[in-house]
């Protein structure tokens, strides 16, 4: 091609020919900082920030303590010499007012999303300005996402100590040897591991010096009362915020509400929920003050998520529209969830996720009483649920007393199946659960990694060589292991219905290999198998892949390995 033609094509900027509204809409899908960088591409983009309708900002992690081996004490690193985060957010919001034409108006604000690392009491004024600006310039469907401090969702009293990282804390994914998609919520901490780390922490001479820093309670910001009378507010998410709602709450358009670490009395939370007649999506996360929850006034509710609200005793719901339910916490019985009408069942439920949290329970639920209680808790979801997601410290260990789920098409099990586990018991547990889903078509197993060894301190090792943590992998393969498991009771769905099997974070080892072999050898109508290996040597991954290919009873089934 002629070089002059190439140069001519290169000089043509079709993107800049678009109108301000279109360019502003494109930049609204970026964070505020990324959008600001994009405006430096051309002088044409100089004032495009005035046309964005979404402002998203997330404060990076703050300074972390550095350990001084000489004095055996912690010191905070000096913060970066940059503008305060509150100033940056304020500038991003008011950049929408700087337009080249004096009479031109900024588009209505559709979304304000701000996530702060650590909120201080002196920051109340600028945060009030953000909320006031959002309400004043709101679009017909406004989203407000305001989290003023990032803290662990669920933890024990000593979980703030550096030697015992809490579930849900940021930055813990890499040390588990998993892939980047593994979220902190999928990382488990067994009771024994936490006890070990707590004991190790108690022997550290510097532990007393850091308790006040790591155990401090979340700072709380009080939301302006005018937010609770915003007629255009459609989605509201608040984290570590004090509601203090006014006597009259008017949120006629609110459809999604997400509350995390809200310290208000349960009555305030209840009033806010009851004053939202069109609420369709409700999430309560670590709201310790909520003890009783009534959702009878919310007849439009379609999704309910309750995570680590340990003091919540009873929930009463309207069964007409509820389609998805998610719960994380201790084992509950049939008295926890009360359903109005329809004989106590949920006729429209389609998706159910139950996570027996290993952080907030004292021990793994294995007693007959716990298993029976969990079975009765799941009974209202049994008749119509199509997607069932069960998670426990040990894969399936808490769910062997499930009721029958005749409508389930997709079953996902999360938990650990470690190299030294009883392989026969692992197969028997999964088979017991599969028999309760006679029409199952898609089976997903997520093998969670082993817990951290006691004494690991991510803060002490932040500046040291981390190769021994990153390079350590969970892959296991021994060609002399016996992976046969004879059983006379193969689940019927495995032989006649299951068409897809997905194995995530497959680590090998005798127990996992035995379970995988049993499933693949008996899935006679299998159409596709997907397996993602845990990180580790390519040679071990290749051996595990070849072995799995040889187990497939249906040789025509498609295979995908990552």
TrEMBL record:
Acidic residues composition-biased segments: 185-198
InterPro entries xrefs: F-box-like_dom_sf (IPR036047), FBD (IPR006566), FBL13/AtMIF1-like (IPR050232), LRR_At1g61320_AtMIF1 (IPR055357), LRR_dom_sf (IPR032675)
Domain (At1g61320/AtMIF1 LRR): residue spans on this chain: 221-332
Domain FBD: 488-529
Source species, domain of life: Eukaryota
Stretch list, region Disordered: 184-212
Name of the protein: FBD domain-containing protein
Originating organism: Lolium multiflorum
């Amino acid at each position: 091609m002629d070089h002059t033609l190439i140069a001519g094509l290169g000089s043509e900027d079709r993107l800049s020919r678009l109108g301000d509204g279109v360019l502003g809409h494109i930049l609204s899908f970026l964070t505020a900082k990324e959008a600001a960088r994009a405006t430096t591409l051309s002088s044409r983009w100089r004032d495009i920030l005035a046309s964005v309708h979404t402002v998203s900002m997330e404060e990076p992690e703050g300074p972390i303590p550095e350990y001084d081996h000489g004095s055996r004490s912690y010191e905070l690193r000096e913060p970066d010499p940059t503008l305060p985060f509150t100033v940056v957010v304020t500038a991003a919001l008011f950049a929408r007012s700087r337009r080249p034409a004096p009479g031109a108006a900024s588009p209505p604000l559709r979304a304000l999303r701000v996530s702060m690392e650590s909120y201080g009491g002196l920051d109340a004024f600028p945060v009030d300005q953000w909320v006031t600006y959002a309400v004043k310039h709101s679009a017909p469907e406004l989203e407000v996402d305001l989290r003023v401090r990032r803290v662990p969702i669920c933890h024990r009293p000593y979980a703030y100590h550096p030697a015992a990282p809490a579930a849900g804390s940021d930055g813990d994914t890499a040390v588990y040897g998993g892939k980047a998609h593994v979220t902190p919520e999928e990382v488990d901490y067994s009771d024994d591991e936490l006890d070990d780390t707590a004991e190790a922490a108690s022997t550290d001479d510097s532990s007393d010096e850091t308790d006040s820093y790591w155990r401090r309670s979340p700072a709380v910001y009080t939301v302006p009362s005018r937010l609770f009378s915003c007629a255009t507010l459609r989605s509201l998410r608040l984290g570590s915020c004090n509601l203090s709602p006014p006597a009259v709450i008017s949120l006629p358009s609110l459809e999604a509400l997400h509350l995390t670490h809200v310290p208000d009395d349960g009555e305030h939370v209840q009033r806010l929920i009851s004053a939202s007649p069109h609420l369709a999506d409700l999430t309560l996360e670590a709201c310790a003050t909520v003890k009783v929850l009534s959702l009878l006034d919310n007849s439009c509710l379609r999704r309910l998520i309750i995570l680590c609200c340990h003091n919540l005793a009873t929930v009463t719901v309207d069964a007409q529209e509820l389609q998805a339910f998610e719960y994380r916490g201790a084992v509950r019985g049939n008295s926890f969830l009360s359903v109005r009408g329809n004989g106590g069942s949920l006729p429209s439920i389609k998706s159910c996720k139950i996570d027996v949290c290993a952080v907030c329970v004292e021990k793994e639920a294995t007693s007959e009483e716990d298993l029976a209680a969990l079975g009765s808790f799941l009974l209202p979801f049994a008749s119509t649920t199509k997607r069932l997601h069960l998670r426990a410290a040990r894969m399936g260990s808490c769910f062997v007393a499930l009721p029958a789920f005749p409508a389930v098409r997709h079953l996902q099990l999360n938990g650990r199946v470690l190299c030294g586990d009883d392989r026969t018991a692992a197969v028997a547990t999964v088979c017991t659960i599969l028999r309760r889903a006679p029409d199952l078509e898609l089976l997903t197993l997520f093998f969670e990694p082993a817990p951290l060894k006691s004494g690991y301190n991510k803060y002490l090792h932040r500046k040291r060589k981390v190769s021994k943590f990153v390079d350590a992998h969970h892959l296991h393969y021994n060609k002399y292991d016996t992976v046969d498991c004879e059983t006379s009771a193969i689940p019927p769905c495995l032989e006649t219905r299951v068409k897809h099997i997905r194995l995530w974070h497959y680590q090998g080892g005798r127990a996992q290999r035995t379970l995988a072999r049993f499933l693949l050898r008996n899935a006679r109508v299998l159409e596709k198998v997907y397996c993602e290996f845990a990180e580790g040597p390519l040679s071990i991954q290749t051996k595990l892949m070849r072995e799995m290919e040889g187990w497939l009873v249906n040789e025509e089934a498609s295979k995908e390995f990552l």
